[in-house]
Amino acid sequence: MYVYMGKAGMTSGVVFVSVVYWLLALIVLFPPCEVAAAGLTIEALLGHWLGSESITLVQYHMRRTAVTLIIHTLLLPGYVVTLMKSEPWVWDFLDVQVHSHTSALLLLASLIPTAVLGWVVADWWRSGWCRHPLAARLAVYAPSNSPEAWKSVASDINTEFRRVDKFTSGVSSVYQVVATDNWLLKVTAYQVQLLHLRDAVLSLEGAHTTHGPEPATAPPAQLLTIKVMSVREGAPSFSIRLNSLEFGELERKIVNPVVNARHIVIQQSLSDFFLETFMETIRLNPPATPSTTERNLCFGCQQTSANVRLERRCGATEGSNGCQECHCRPMWCVSCLGKWFASRQDQHHPESWLGSRCPCPTCRSTFCLLDVSLIA
Protein backbone atom coordinates (compact mmCIF):
# COMPACT_ATOMS: atom_id res chain seq x y z
CA MET A 1 0.00 0.00 0.00
CA TYR A 2 2.84 2.40 0.79
CA VAL A 3 4.53 1.75 -2.55
CA TYR A 4 1.23 2.25 -4.38
CA MET A 5 0.55 5.53 -2.62
CA GLY A 6 4.11 6.65 -3.35
CA LYS A 7 3.74 5.98 -7.07
CA ALA A 8 0.35 7.66 -7.12
CA GLY A 9 1.81 10.72 -5.43
CA MET A 10 4.70 10.92 -7.88
CA THR A 11 2.35 10.53 -10.84
CA SER A 12 0.12 13.31 -9.54
CA GLY A 13 3.22 15.50 -9.28
CA VAL A 14 3.94 14.95 -12.98
CA VAL A 15 0.35 15.78 -13.87
CA PHE A 16 0.42 18.94 -11.75
CA VAL A 17 3.68 20.19 -13.28
CA SER A 18 2.44 19.41 -16.80
CA VAL A 19 -0.88 21.19 -16.33
CA VAL A 20 0.71 24.30 -14.82
CA TYR A 21 3.43 24.46 -17.47
CA TRP A 22 1.10 24.15 -20.44
CA LEU A 23 -1.36 26.62 -18.98
CA LEU A 24 1.49 29.11 -18.81
CA ALA A 25 2.49 28.06 -22.33
CA LEU A 26 -1.02 28.87 -23.57
CA ILE A 27 -0.61 32.36 -22.13
CA VAL A 28 2.59 32.71 -24.15
CA LEU A 29 0.92 31.39 -27.30
CA PHE A 30 -2.32 33.34 -26.91
CA PRO A 31 -1.66 36.22 -24.50
CA PRO A 32 -4.91 37.60 -23.00
CA CYS A 33 -5.62 41.31 -22.77
CA GLU A 34 -4.50 41.45 -19.13
CA VAL A 35 -1.09 40.01 -19.99
CA ALA A 36 -0.70 42.38 -22.94
CA ALA A 37 -1.66 45.35 -20.76
CA ALA A 38 1.00 44.32 -18.24
CA GLY A 39 3.64 44.35 -21.00
CA LEU A 40 4.44 40.64 -20.71
CA THR A 41 4.13 39.73 -24.39
CA ILE A 42 6.96 38.91 -26.77
CA GLU A 43 6.46 42.22 -28.57
CA ALA A 44 6.69 44.24 -25.36
CA LEU A 45 9.64 42.38 -23.84
CA LEU A 46 11.67 42.47 -27.07
CA GLY A 47 10.39 45.82 -28.29
CA HIS A 48 13.87 47.40 -28.34
CA TRP A 49 15.16 44.79 -30.81
CA LEU A 50 11.98 44.55 -32.88
CA GLY A 51 11.82 48.28 -33.54
CA SER A 52 8.74 50.42 -34.05
CA GLU A 53 5.68 48.97 -35.75
CA SER A 54 4.28 52.43 -36.48
CA ILE A 55 7.43 53.50 -38.37
CA THR A 56 8.64 50.33 -40.12
CA LEU A 57 5.64 48.02 -40.17
CA VAL A 58 6.99 45.45 -42.62
CA GLN A 59 10.46 45.07 -41.11
CA TYR A 60 8.96 44.99 -37.63
CA HIS A 61 6.73 42.03 -38.47
CA MET A 62 9.56 40.22 -40.23
CA ARG A 63 11.58 40.30 -37.03
CA ARG A 64 8.52 39.61 -34.86
CA THR A 65 7.44 36.50 -36.75
CA ALA A 66 11.00 35.17 -36.69
CA VAL A 67 11.48 35.56 -32.95
CA THR A 68 7.94 34.31 -32.23
CA LEU A 69 8.60 31.08 -34.12
CA ILE A 70 11.80 30.43 -32.17
CA ILE A 71 10.32 31.23 -28.76
CA HIS A 72 7.25 29.09 -29.36
CA THR A 73 9.34 26.10 -30.44
CA LEU A 74 11.37 26.47 -27.23
CA LEU A 75 8.26 25.64 -25.22
CA LEU A 76 8.69 21.91 -25.87
CA PRO A 77 12.32 21.61 -24.67
CA GLY A 78 11.38 23.97 -21.86
CA TYR A 79 8.77 21.46 -20.74
CA VAL A 80 11.28 18.61 -20.88
CA VAL A 81 13.81 20.55 -18.79
CA THR A 82 11.12 21.61 -16.30
CA LEU A 83 10.04 18.00 -15.86
CA MET A 84 13.67 16.92 -15.43
CA LYS A 85 14.20 19.44 -12.64
CA SER A 86 10.89 18.99 -10.83
CA GLU A 87 10.36 15.24 -11.28
CA PRO A 88 13.79 13.63 -11.80
CA TRP A 89 12.44 10.17 -10.98
CA VAL A 90 10.67 10.09 -14.37
CA TRP A 91 13.95 10.29 -16.23
CA ASP A 92 15.66 7.85 -13.87
CA PHE A 93 12.82 5.42 -14.56
CA LEU A 94 13.14 5.84 -18.34
CA ASP A 95 16.93 5.47 -18.25
CA VAL A 96 16.60 2.22 -16.31
CA GLN A 97 13.55 0.68 -17.97
CA VAL A 98 13.96 1.82 -21.60
CA HIS A 99 17.52 2.87 -22.43
CA SER A 100 20.39 4.34 -20.52
CA HIS A 101 20.32 7.52 -22.63
CA THR A 102 16.56 7.93 -23.02
CA SER A 103 16.38 11.24 -21.17
CA ALA A 104 19.21 12.75 -23.22
CA LEU A 105 17.66 11.53 -26.48
CA LEU A 106 14.27 13.01 -25.57
CA LEU A 107 15.87 16.35 -24.77
CA LEU A 108 17.75 16.36 -28.09
CA ALA A 109 14.59 15.38 -29.97
CA SER A 110 12.67 18.26 -28.38
CA LEU A 111 15.36 20.66 -29.60
CA ILE A 112 15.10 19.57 -33.25
CA PRO A 113 12.25 21.98 -34.20
CA THR A 114 14.12 24.86 -32.56
CA ALA A 115 17.33 23.97 -34.38
CA VAL A 116 15.60 23.74 -37.75
CA LEU A 117 13.75 27.02 -37.31
CA GLY A 118 16.89 28.65 -35.94
CA TRP A 119 18.71 27.71 -39.15
CA VAL A 120 15.82 29.07 -41.27
CA VAL A 121 15.66 32.35 -39.34
CA ALA A 122 19.44 32.73 -39.54
CA ASP A 123 19.15 32.34 -43.32
CA TRP A 124 16.50 35.08 -43.39
CA TRP A 125 18.73 37.38 -41.38
CA ARG A 126 21.86 36.72 -43.48
CA SER A 127 19.95 37.53 -46.67
CA GLY A 128 18.81 40.87 -45.28
CA TRP A 129 15.30 39.37 -44.87
CA CYS A 130 15.05 38.90 -48.64
CA ARG A 131 14.19 35.21 -48.14
CA HIS A 132 11.50 35.91 -45.58
CA PRO A 133 8.02 34.76 -46.76
CA LEU A 134 6.71 38.31 -46.40
CA ALA A 135 9.42 39.57 -48.76
CA ALA A 136 8.28 36.98 -51.31
CA ARG A 137 4.69 38.24 -51.04
CA LEU A 138 5.83 41.83 -51.49
CA ALA A 139 7.96 40.87 -54.50
CA VAL A 140 4.76 40.02 -56.41
CA TYR A 141 3.99 43.75 -56.47
CA ALA A 142 7.57 44.92 -57.01
CA PRO A 143 8.35 46.90 -60.19
CA SER A 144 11.34 44.67 -61.03
CA ASN A 145 12.73 41.20 -60.36
CA SER A 146 15.62 42.45 -58.27
CA PRO A 147 16.08 40.66 -54.90
CA GLU A 148 15.84 44.05 -53.19
CA ALA A 149 12.79 45.24 -55.15
CA TRP A 150 10.39 44.25 -52.35
CA LYS A 151 11.81 47.02 -50.18
CA SER A 152 10.20 49.74 -52.30
CA VAL A 153 6.80 48.10 -51.81
CA ALA A 154 7.52 47.77 -48.09
CA SER A 155 8.38 51.46 -47.95
CA ASP A 156 5.01 52.37 -49.49
CA ILE A 157 3.17 50.20 -46.96
CA ASN A 158 5.15 51.69 -44.07
CA THR A 159 4.28 55.19 -45.23
CA GLU A 160 0.57 54.43 -45.52
CA PHE A 161 0.51 52.72 -42.12
CA ARG A 162 1.80 55.88 -40.47
CA ARG A 163 -1.32 57.76 -41.58
CA VAL A 164 -4.03 58.27 -39.01
CA ASP A 165 -6.90 57.21 -41.28
CA LYS A 166 -5.88 53.54 -41.50
CA PHE A 167 -8.28 50.82 -40.41
CA THR A 168 -7.19 48.32 -37.75
CA SER A 169 -9.18 45.53 -36.17
CA GLY A 170 -8.38 42.90 -33.57
CA VAL A 171 -5.22 44.64 -32.41
CA SER A 172 -3.13 41.89 -30.78
CA SER A 173 -0.09 39.76 -31.40
CA VAL A 174 -2.31 36.85 -32.35
CA TYR A 175 -4.61 38.40 -34.95
CA GLN A 176 -4.93 41.78 -36.62
CA VAL A 177 -6.51 43.14 -39.80
CA VAL A 178 -5.09 46.35 -41.25
CA ALA A 179 -6.38 48.35 -44.21
CA THR A 180 -4.47 51.36 -45.50
CA ASP A 181 -5.26 53.45 -48.56
CA ASN A 182 -3.98 50.75 -50.94
CA TRP A 183 -3.26 47.61 -48.93
CA LEU A 184 -5.12 45.00 -46.90
CA LEU A 185 -3.04 43.02 -44.41
CA LYS A 186 -3.81 40.07 -42.17
CA VAL A 187 -1.31 39.80 -39.33
CA THR A 188 -1.06 36.59 -37.29
CA ALA A 189 1.52 35.26 -34.87
CA TYR A 190 3.59 33.52 -37.55
CA GLN A 191 2.93 35.33 -40.82
CA VAL A 192 1.64 38.43 -42.57
CA GLN A 193 -0.61 38.07 -45.62
CA LEU A 194 -1.46 41.00 -47.84
CA LEU A 195 -3.13 42.09 -51.05
CA HIS A 196 -3.30 45.33 -52.98
CA LEU A 197 -6.81 46.74 -52.66
CA ARG A 198 -6.98 47.51 -56.37
CA ASP A 199 -6.67 43.79 -57.12
CA ALA A 200 -8.65 42.50 -54.13
CA VAL A 201 -12.08 40.90 -54.36
CA LEU A 202 -13.79 40.39 -51.00
CA SER A 203 -16.55 37.83 -50.58
CA LEU A 204 -18.68 37.24 -47.50
CA GLU A 205 -18.44 33.54 -46.71
CA GLY A 206 -20.27 33.25 -43.41
CA ALA A 207 -21.35 34.81 -40.15
CA HIS A 208 -22.01 33.55 -36.67
CA THR A 209 -23.05 35.14 -33.41
CA THR A 210 -20.99 34.79 -30.25
CA HIS A 211 -21.97 35.61 -26.69
CA GLY A 212 -19.69 37.04 -24.06
CA PRO A 213 -19.10 35.53 -20.61
CA GLU A 214 -22.18 37.38 -19.35
CA PRO A 215 -24.78 37.22 -22.14
CA ALA A 216 -27.39 38.90 -19.94
CA THR A 217 -25.39 42.12 -19.77
CA ALA A 218 -23.52 42.15 -23.07
CA PRO A 219 -25.07 42.06 -26.53
CA PRO A 220 -23.97 39.20 -28.79
CA ALA A 221 -21.35 39.96 -31.41
CA GLN A 222 -21.64 38.92 -35.03
CA LEU A 223 -18.36 37.72 -36.53
CA LEU A 224 -18.04 37.80 -40.30
CA THR A 225 -15.80 35.48 -42.31
CA ILE A 226 -14.57 37.23 -45.45
CA LYS A 227 -12.53 35.58 -48.18
CA VAL A 228 -10.01 37.90 -49.80
CA MET A 229 -8.93 37.00 -53.33
CA SER A 230 -6.71 38.75 -55.83
CA VAL A 231 -6.94 38.98 -59.59
CA ARG A 232 -3.15 39.32 -59.74
CA GLU A 233 -1.30 36.13 -60.57
CA GLY A 234 0.94 34.88 -57.78
CA ALA A 235 -0.94 36.63 -54.97
CA PRO A 236 -2.48 33.94 -52.73
CA SER A 237 -5.94 34.39 -51.25
CA PHE A 238 -6.73 34.31 -47.54
CA SER A 239 -9.64 34.76 -45.15
CA ILE A 240 -10.19 37.35 -42.46
CA ARG A 241 -12.60 37.47 -39.53
CA LEU A 242 -14.19 40.74 -38.58
CA ASN A 243 -16.74 42.04 -36.13
CA SER A 244 -19.81 43.23 -38.02
CA LEU A 245 -19.60 46.57 -36.20
CA GLU A 246 -16.31 47.23 -38.01
CA PHE A 247 -17.43 46.06 -41.43
CA GLY A 248 -18.66 49.47 -42.54
CA GLU A 249 -15.32 51.09 -41.77
CA LEU A 250 -13.45 48.43 -43.74
CA GLU A 251 -15.90 48.74 -46.62
CA ARG A 252 -15.06 52.42 -46.94
CA LYS A 253 -11.40 51.52 -47.46
CA ILE A 254 -11.71 48.87 -50.14
CA VAL A 255 -11.98 49.67 -53.84
CA ASN A 256 -14.20 46.91 -55.20
CA PRO A 257 -17.64 46.19 -53.69
CA VAL A 258 -17.93 43.26 -51.30
CA VAL A 259 -19.60 40.22 -52.86
CA ASN A 260 -22.46 38.89 -50.73
CA ALA A 261 -23.64 35.94 -52.82
CA ARG A 262 -24.93 34.13 -49.73
CA HIS A 263 -27.17 37.10 -48.82
CA ILE A 264 -25.78 37.30 -45.31
CA VAL A 265 -27.55 39.83 -43.10
CA ILE A 266 -24.91 41.99 -41.43
CA GLN A 267 -25.77 43.32 -38.01
CA GLN A 268 -24.00 46.63 -37.94
CA SER A 269 -24.86 47.81 -34.45
CA LEU A 270 -26.70 47.06 -31.25
CA SER A 271 -29.71 48.96 -32.60
CA ASP A 272 -29.74 46.80 -35.74
CA PHE A 273 -29.59 43.64 -33.65
CA PHE A 274 -32.43 44.90 -31.46
CA LEU A 275 -34.45 45.84 -34.53
CA GLU A 276 -34.30 42.24 -35.75
CA THR A 277 -35.45 40.99 -32.34
CA PHE A 278 -38.12 43.72 -32.23
CA MET A 279 -39.60 42.52 -35.52
CA GLU A 280 -39.54 38.87 -34.47
CA THR A 281 -41.29 39.74 -31.21
CA ILE A 282 -44.15 41.81 -32.60
CA ARG A 283 -44.87 39.18 -35.26
CA LEU A 284 -46.08 37.05 -32.35
CA ASN A 285 -48.69 39.69 -31.46
CA PRO A 286 -52.19 39.53 -32.97
CA PRO A 287 -52.35 41.51 -36.24
CA ALA A 288 -54.24 44.77 -36.39
CA THR A 289 -57.38 45.21 -38.46
CA PRO A 290 -56.57 46.78 -41.84
CA SER A 291 -57.52 50.42 -42.10
CA THR A 292 -60.38 51.36 -44.41
CA THR A 293 -58.52 54.44 -45.57
CA GLU A 294 -55.47 54.40 -47.77
CA ARG A 295 -52.26 54.12 -45.81
CA ASN A 296 -49.71 56.89 -46.15
CA LEU A 297 -45.98 56.55 -46.39
CA CYS A 298 -44.07 56.15 -43.14
CA PHE A 299 -43.56 59.53 -41.49
CA GLY A 300 -39.99 58.55 -40.59
CA CYS A 301 -38.43 57.14 -43.76
CA GLN A 302 -40.96 58.24 -46.40
CA GLN A 303 -40.19 55.04 -48.30
CA THR A 304 -42.44 52.32 -46.87
CA SER A 305 -46.14 52.35 -46.16
CA ALA A 306 -47.10 52.74 -42.51
CA ASN A 307 -47.73 49.16 -41.39
CA VAL A 308 -47.98 49.17 -37.58
CA ARG A 309 -50.60 50.30 -35.09
CA LEU A 310 -50.48 50.64 -31.31
CA GLU A 311 -53.28 48.72 -29.57
CA ARG A 312 -53.01 48.50 -25.80
CA ARG A 313 -53.24 44.87 -24.76
CA CYS A 314 -50.50 44.30 -22.19
CA GLY A 315 -52.97 44.47 -19.27
CA ALA A 316 -51.01 47.08 -17.33
CA THR A 317 -53.04 49.61 -15.40
CA GLU A 318 -53.22 52.98 -17.03
CA GLY A 319 -51.06 55.56 -15.34
CA SER A 320 -47.75 57.32 -15.44
CA ASN A 321 -45.80 54.05 -15.34
CA GLY A 322 -48.13 51.85 -17.37
CA CYS A 323 -49.15 51.54 -20.99
CA GLN A 324 -51.73 53.96 -22.34
CA GLU A 325 -54.28 53.97 -25.11
CA CYS A 326 -53.02 55.38 -28.42
CA HIS A 327 -55.60 56.72 -30.86
CA CYS A 328 -53.17 57.72 -33.61
CA ARG A 329 -53.78 56.50 -37.12
CA PRO A 330 -50.96 54.36 -38.62
CA MET A 331 -48.09 56.70 -39.40
CA TRP A 332 -44.95 54.56 -38.96
CA CYS A 333 -43.40 51.46 -40.48
CA VAL A 334 -42.16 48.68 -38.23
CA SER A 335 -38.50 49.50 -38.91
CA CYS A 336 -38.77 53.16 -37.97
CA LEU A 337 -40.87 52.40 -34.90
CA GLY A 338 -38.27 49.85 -33.78
CA LYS A 339 -35.48 52.40 -34.21
CA TRP A 340 -37.51 54.95 -32.26
CA PHE A 341 -38.12 52.42 -29.48
CA ALA A 342 -34.38 51.60 -29.26
CA SER A 343 -33.38 55.27 -29.21
CA ARG A 344 -35.59 55.91 -26.16
CA GLN A 345 -34.04 53.15 -24.04
CA ASP A 346 -31.16 53.13 -21.57
CA GLN A 347 -28.16 52.54 -23.84
CA HIS A 348 -26.11 51.16 -20.94
CA HIS A 349 -28.59 48.37 -20.19
CA PRO A 350 -29.70 46.79 -23.49
CA GLU A 351 -30.79 43.66 -21.65
CA SER A 352 -33.83 45.60 -20.39
CA TRP A 353 -35.02 46.92 -23.74
CA LEU A 354 -37.51 44.18 -24.60
CA GLY A 355 -39.33 44.63 -21.31
CA SER A 356 -39.29 48.42 -21.33
CA ARG A 357 -41.81 51.01 -22.48
CA CYS A 358 -41.58 53.94 -24.84
CA PRO A 359 -43.72 56.99 -25.72
CA CYS A 360 -45.54 56.98 -29.03
CA PRO A 361 -43.54 59.13 -31.48
CA THR A 362 -46.73 61.03 -32.38
CA CYS A 363 -48.91 61.45 -29.28
CA ARG A 364 -46.44 60.36 -26.56
CA SER A 365 -48.77 57.69 -25.16
CA THR A 366 -46.70 55.02 -23.43
CA PHE A 367 -46.58 51.56 -25.03
CA CYS A 368 -44.62 48.32 -24.81
CA LEU A 369 -43.82 45.60 -27.35
CA LEU A 370 -47.06 43.75 -26.57
CA ASP A 371 -49.00 46.77 -27.85
CA VAL A 372 -47.39 46.85 -31.29
CA SER A 373 -49.40 45.17 -34.04
CA LEU A 374 -48.60 44.67 -37.68
CA ILE A 375 -51.40 45.68 -40.01
CA ALA A 376 -52.56 42.59 -41.84
TrEMBL record:
It is found in: Membrane. One of its GO terms (molecular function) is ubiquitin protein ligase activity. The chain crosses the membrane at residues 20-46, 66-84, 104-122. Its main location: membrane. InterPro entries: TM129 (IPR018801). It is a multi-pass membrane protein. Keywords: Membrane, Transmembrane, Transmembrane helix. It comes from the Eukaryota. GO terms for cellular component: endoplasmic reticulum; membrane. GO terms for biological process: protein ubiquitination. Belongs to the TMEM129 family. This is Transmembrane protein 129. It comes from Chionoecetes opilio (Atlantic snow crab). The lineage of its organism: Eukaryota, Metazoa, Ecdysozoa, Arthropoda, Crustacea.
